[in-house]
Inverse folding.
């Protein structure tokens, strides 16, 4: 299963950066968030489409050491690495991409253009850092980008498509069309060969039947039996039926194979036309909203961690809980707090905002106590997974202590993959659901 590089990049484009970008560009945070949600898969798609371009791979390698991740808002707009790369990726279609994103998100074209540079900087910087951390050379980077081709269309928000950017699937992923044509051609050849074989079998069988009845006629002159003409007729009908079923079977196989290959190469439009089933629209990405904390507005997802915790505390659910056993089964997953890959003491950009929200909630409800939990997916050595998840939970506890609410944090525990639900053989994107940090109320 291939790594979804978009999962790596999201940490650089969290709520804190969205807020800063909104303030700098004079746009709403929801508009900035929507624009990023559309630009990110478009940029990754552009890289994937140019995975074998040495100039693109070289730009990614240089980005890892350029320090671009440390200054996305200020360092992306005029960075020659970014401007040259965008020209290579999109050529004269940049204007169409910017217009589509501006219209989709409700922000100005200037803001959309600036965000395109920012998202591209975050993308190449993150991919370059991942390549450096994992000792990937040029071929490794190309392979990583090529792996993204099959998933890009499915990650675009509802209301956007490659076609809406002027980047149709045939233009970007022409190889998919060639692959389907090649499969169809091969399958047609196989059908022709099998039909020819079936015809030969029928002809041979008819010859045997004819010879058999000629012998019978010689042994039974003047018998006039009805079987002289009826039995050969029945056999020929059976042979014709066999030939028809053989052709029908191969045609069915052809349709199935072509559909599968179309889906594999990401040609969702072709798949829909073959199967007659519309491709489900991708889920619309969530955006931060105002969450009311006793008159103070926190930025968080509606129905997310902050919203749920505040609702529970306001309902006196915590106050009325008899003991810890009444609270232990309800965990609240952090929506934005993520650690850098393999690290237990370095958070991804955009994580601090939700920790600040948690501090604010605890200060607003000083009687509430919590427990921190860390979790990993099912891959890797379990002893190391437990250690890593424990260290991450302790890191968050230490941050809360430093913020002045340490007395309300009773425990920090690492569970490794004990509660992981996604199989180890699943894609990295699917396993991401198991790699999380969470908090529950405790007594």
């Amino acid at each position: 299963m291939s790594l979804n590089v978009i999962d790596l990049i999201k940490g650089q484009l969290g709520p804190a950066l969205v807020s800063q970008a909104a303030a700098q560009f004079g746009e709403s945070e929801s508009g900035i968030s929507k624009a990023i949600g559309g630009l990110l898969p478009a940029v990754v798609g552009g890289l994937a489409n140019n995975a074998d371009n040495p100039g693109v791979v070289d730009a990614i390698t240089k980005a890892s050491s350029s320090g671009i991740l440390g200054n996305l808002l200020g360092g992306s707009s005029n960075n020659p690495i970014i401007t040259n790369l965008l020209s290579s990726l999109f050529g004269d279609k940049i204007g169409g991409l910017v217009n589509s994103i501006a219209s989709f998100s409700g922000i100005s074209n200037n803001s959309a253009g600036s965000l395109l540079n920012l998202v591209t900087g975050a993308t190449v910087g993150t991919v370059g850092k991942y390549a450096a951390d994992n000792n990937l050379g040029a071929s490794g980077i190309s392979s990583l980008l090529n792996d993204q081709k099959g998933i890009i269309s499915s990650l675009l928000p509802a209301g956007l498509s490659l076609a809406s950017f002027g980047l149709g699937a045939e233009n970007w992923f022409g190889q998919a069309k060639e692959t389907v044509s090649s499969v169809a051609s091969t399958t047609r050849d196989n059908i022709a060969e099998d039909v020819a074989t079936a015809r030969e079998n029928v002809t041979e069988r008819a010859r045997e039947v004819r010879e058999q009845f000629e012998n019978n006629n010689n042994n039974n002159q003047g018998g006039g039996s009805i079987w002289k003409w009826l039995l050969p007729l029945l056999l020929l009908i059976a042979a014709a039926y066999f030939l028809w079923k053989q052709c029908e079977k191969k045609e069915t196989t052809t349709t199935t194979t072509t559909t599968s290959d179309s889906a594999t190469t990401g040609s969702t439009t072709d798949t829909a036309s073959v199967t007659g089933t519309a491709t489900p629209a991708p889920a619309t990405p969530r955006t931060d909203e105002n969450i009311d904390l006793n008159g103070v507005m926190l930025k968080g997802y509606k129905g997310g961690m902050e919203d749920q915790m505040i609702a529970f505390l306001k309902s006196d659910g915590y106050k009325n809980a008899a003991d810890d056993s009444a609270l232990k089964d309800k965990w609240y997953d952090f929506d934005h707090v993520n650690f850098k890959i393999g690290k237990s003491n370095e958070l991804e950009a955009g994580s601090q905002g939700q920790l600040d929200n948690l501090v604010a909630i605890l200060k607003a409800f000083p009687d509430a106590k919590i427990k921190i939990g860390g979790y990993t997916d099912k891959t890797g050595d379990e002893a190391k997974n437990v250690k890593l998840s424990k260290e991450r939970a302790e890191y968050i506890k230490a941050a809360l202590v430093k913020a002045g609410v340490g007395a309300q944090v009773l425990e920090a525990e690492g569970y490794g993959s004990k509660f992981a639900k996604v199989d180890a053989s699943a894609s990295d994107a699917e396993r991401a659901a198991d790699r999380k940090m969470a908090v529950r109320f405790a007594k």
In short: The chain has a mean pLDDT of 76. DSSP finds 19 helices and six strands in the chain.
